[in-house]
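# nightly structure sweep
# worker-07 picked up a monomer target from the shared queue
# config: single-sequence mode, recycle default, output format = structure tokens
# input follows
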Amino acid sequence: MPHDINIEKEVAFVEVINLPGEGFVAELRIDNASYMFDRQGLQHRIVQKIQRGLDASVEETALARINNYSSAFEEQ
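# output follows
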């Protein structure tokens, strides 16, 4: 996860992508740039935002979608 991203900036969920060798990652748009986050990166960002009293709903949605995709593909 990039450490220089200001967590107070507006964030938008773009999509979940399955990267070969990496698994599922979420693409988030932050301040007119796109960033990829894996589960651990999203969890870290969620904790940081909650600790600072910020809204983490976009990251929580992205994490839920990664979990849904992962469980759906593991069942096959």
